[in-house]
């Protein structure tokens, strides 16, 4: 419960920053549109492989997969990782600049991401490869093996949490960026975690009104309500996804500033960061 309350507070404060600078929402919008476009192109080019791609993406890999199918899956993952990281990097760059009173613009963020495009592509290749391997391995193991793989995946996610701002502000290669990200996490919050914040839980709760709306519309208006409610629910989910992505980018920028210099951006309190994750000491350790 404490974790959810903390997550809600962090989301509200990050959203307050977004309200004062809603141009930041353009980054996740551009990211979503670009992912759809890139996926459509790749699936169109590899149309005969689409069923294999769908199977692999779900983690249920067939016993034998052709080389072209595997290559298509890798291209799909890498392309989408590249797009997501590219626009996240742009968002984090502008959000971080605005936090210190700067006047970073959409163009500035995209310019920063374009300068780092080579490093972003390298990281996309690494992250996509790890993601595919974990999904395939998970699909082949028993429940215990799947649990272990998911724990490995969670550890990977924590270690890679600061990769995007590290790529943006420190311009390291993918392996060094991962090491730097893991170092920042370990030095500030320790290795033995008892809990942390989760925007995912909050977004899940915020999605419930949309589902309830659909059932109400279907019950009151019948078939017409199902259609109208479906349209409204899709629109609501799209807005929620865009706002959530922007809010998470803002908080990532703020958390990175804290992790690298223990600087608390306006709108936040020190305990928002020192207790973002719970380690043994419950307090951050200063980086060496």
Automatic annotation (TrEMBL):
<feature type="transmembrane region" description="Helical">
    <location>
        <begin position="193"/>
        <end position="217"/>
    </location>
</feature>
<feature type="transmembrane region" description="Helical">
    <location>
        <begin position="223"/>
        <end position="247"/>
    </location>
</feature>
<feature type="transmembrane region" description="Helical">
    <location>
        <begin position="149"/>
        <end position="172"/>
    </location>
</feature>
<keyword id="KW-0812">Transmembrane</keyword>
<keyword id="KW-1133">Transmembrane helix</keyword>
<protein>
    <recommendedName>
        <fullName>Glycerophosphoryl diester phosphodiesterase membrane domain-containing protein</fullName>
    </recommendedName>
</protein>
<dbReference type="InterPro" id="IPR046157">
    <property type="entry name" value="DUF6159"/>
</dbReference>
<feature type="transmembrane region" description="Helical">
    <location>
        <begin position="24"/>
        <end position="49"/>
    </location>
</feature>
<dbReference type="Pfam" id="PF19656">
    <property type="entry name" value="DUF6159"/>
</dbReference>
<feature type="transmembrane region" description="Helical">
    <location>
        <begin position="120"/>
        <end position="137"/>
    </location>
</feature>
<feature type="transmembrane region" description="Helical">
    <location>
        <begin position="69"/>
        <end position="91"/>
    </location>
</feature>
<keyword id="KW-0472">Membrane</keyword>
């Amino acid at each position: 419960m404490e974790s959810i309350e903390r997550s809600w507070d962090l989301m509200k404060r990050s959203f307050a920053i977004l309200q004062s600078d809603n141009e930041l929402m353009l980054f996740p919008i551009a990211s979503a549109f670009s992912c759809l476009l890139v996926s459509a192109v790749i699936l169109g080019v590899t149309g005969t492989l689409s069923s294999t791609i769908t199977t692999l993406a779900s983690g249920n890999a067939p016993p034998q997969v052709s080389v072209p199918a595997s290559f298509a899956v890798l291209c799909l993952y890498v392309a989408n990782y590249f797009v997501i990281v590219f626009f996240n990097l742009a968002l984090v760059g502008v959000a971080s600049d605005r936090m210190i009173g700067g006047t970073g613009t959409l163009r500035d963020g995209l310019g920063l991401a374009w300068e780092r495009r080579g490093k972003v592509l390298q990281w996309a290749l690494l992250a996509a490869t790890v993601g595919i391997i974990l999904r395939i391995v998970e699909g082949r193991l028993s429940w215990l093996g799947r649990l272990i793989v998911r724990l490995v995946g969670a550890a990977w996610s924590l270690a890679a949490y600061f990769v995007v701002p590290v790529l943006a502000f420190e311009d390291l290669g993918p392996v060094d960026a991962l090491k730097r990200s893991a170092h920042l996490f370990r030095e500030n919050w320790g290795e033995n975690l008892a809990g942390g914040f989760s925007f995912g839980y909050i977004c899940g709760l915020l999605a419930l009104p949309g589902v309830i709306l659909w059932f109400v519309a279907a019950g009151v208006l019948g078939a017409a309500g199902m259609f109208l409610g479906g349209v409204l629910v899709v629109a609501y989910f799209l807005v929620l996804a865009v706002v959530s992505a922007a809010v998470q980018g803002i908080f990532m920028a703020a958390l990175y500033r804290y992790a690298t210099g223990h600087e608390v951006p306006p709108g936040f309190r020190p305990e928002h960061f020192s207790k973002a994750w719970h380690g043994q000491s419950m307090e951050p350790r200063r980086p060496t």
